[in-house]
Design a protein that fits this description.
The chain contains 12 helices and 24 strands. With 417 residues, it is an alpha/beta fold. α7 packs parallel to α9. It is globular and about 60 Å long.
Length: 417
């Protein structure tokens, strides 16, 4: 089990935000389906590699040059698609393979084969698609030809199911309707999907209860630029809030990314935030507790839990039950992280109450093979009295392979082992 020890330090510096993982998933898919699109820049994380592998299994071919990926047409499809631990990849590609009528077995790693697929298990079989899950083997077999029609979808499980259908239904003959049976959460991610679809010439219409999707459409080639990642930027901006001043460039204030909420949330905690064009700066200031609704921004909880721990007073995170279904039980993982760093907290089925104490002690944090928990624990060192040891340091490769280099670039200090 790889570990890293973070030393107390001050955070200072200016960096470009890494390219958005969520936007890159979507751009790669629409570019590939067009047959000859180009996407840049791409960060070669494990999740990005999973999406590229699945595109190859779908029979779509590409070339790489630097941080750009260009698609060059079709090849032979493959019966096995390795999703790694990427929930987005799995949920996006299940209906896509079915739209092409291509049988496939998805290989899953970590907790991926256990994560919810109830939306597809309910809505796909009536439309010609069979799913067989084998949790012991870590596989999900998909067969059949996706047919158009009415798809009833629970909106409070994961927006990734909606995105998978939005990518797929334009390809099948006949018109379709996606109808929400419960309110949609993380709707900003669906907006990102709609933006990518629009850029590729795909027409989708919003309706009072979901979306109308005309069938028989064709994806249009183009050059798709991937903007900076607000989700990843949250860790660096959080470092500034805890221990110095950080400036990040490449962050579009008009982005569809829901996690751009990190800037106003840090301001609510008391950090000094300034934004100009695509540049955001966060400077340390006295932090105070506040309450945050996590329904639309679940990925921000680990970093915000650390901010809350370094604040004075209580912070309540609510509507957070979906965090139990991530790479780890991220709600329990965040609570355990705080306790290991000397901060008391109380956890319920869908809330986390943090009793901020203004600073962290040293300690040892179980990273739980979860990239976001590891990165959140790392920035705690900017407000810690003693060293912090974190397990599973290499889990950052899932989304941000250069995290430790960037961490050092803003003043972070660490020892390996």
């Amino acid at each position: 089990m790889s570990s890293i020890t973070l030393l107390p330090a001050s955070a200072h510096g200016a960096l470009a935000a890494p390219p958005s993982k969520s936007a890159a998933h979507r751009a790669l898919i629409v570019a590939a389906l067009s047959g000859s699109g180009c996407v840049h820049p791409i960060l070669p994380s494990e999740d990005m590699e999973a999406t590229l592998r699945c595109l190859c299994s779908l029979g779509l071919r590409f070339e790489r040059e630097g941080d750009a990926v260009t698609f060059i047409g079709q090849g032979g499809p493959q019966p096995l698609a390795d999703c790694g631990e990427s929930g987005s990849t799995l949920r996006f590609f299940i209906p896509l393979f079915a739209a092409f009528g291509q049988p496939v077995t998805f290989q899953c790693h970590g907790r991926l084969a256990e994560r919810p697929l109830s939306v597809y298990a309910s809505c796909l079989p009536p439309h010609g698609v069979t799913l067989i899950r084998d949790e012991a083997a870590g596989t999900i077999a998909v067969s059949g030809q996706l047919r158009s029609g009415r798809f009833e979808v629970a909106g409070d499980v994961s927006s990734q199911f909606v995105t998978g259908l939005l990518f797929s239904l334009p390809l099948v003959p006949g018109d379709s309707a996606i109808v929400f049976t419960s309110p949609l959460q993380s709707g900003a991610y669906v907006d990102m999907t709609l933006t990518a679809l629009n850029a590729a010439g795909i027409v989708v219409r919003k309706t009072p209860d979901g979306f109308a999707v005309p069938g028989g459409q064709t994806y249009r080639p183009g050059i798709f630029h991937v903007g900076g990642d607000w989700s990843q930027a949250a860790f660096l901006l959080g470092a500034g809030a805890l221990g110095g001043e950080i400036t990040l460039s490449g962050l579009d204030s008009e982005s569809m990314q829901g996690d751009k909420a990190i800037a106003p949330i840090l301001s609510r905690f008391g950090a000094s935030i300034t934004q100009e064009n695509d540049t955001v700066s966060c400077r340390k200031a006295p932090l105070r507790g506040c309450d945050i609704d996590m329904a639309d921004i679940p990925d921000l909880l680990p970093v915000l839990a650390i901010i809350a721990g370094a604040a004075t007073g209580d912070s309540l995170f609510y509507n957070a039950a979906r965090l139990r279904l991530k790479e780890s039980d991220r709600l329990s993982g965040a609570a355990a992280m705080l306790r290991a760093l000397g901060v008391s907290c109380e956890e319920t089925a869908d809330t986390l109450l943090v009793h901020g104490r203004g600073r962290f002690s040293g300690g040892t944090v179980d990273g739980k093979h979860d990239h976001r928990l590891v990165m959140a624990a790392a920035i705690a060192a900017f407000a810690a009295k003693g060293d912090i040891t974190v397990t599973d340091k290499d889990s950052v490769n899932k989304s941000w392979p250069s995290f430790w280099q960037d961490y050092a670039a803003i003043g972070g200090q660490y020892k390996i082992g």
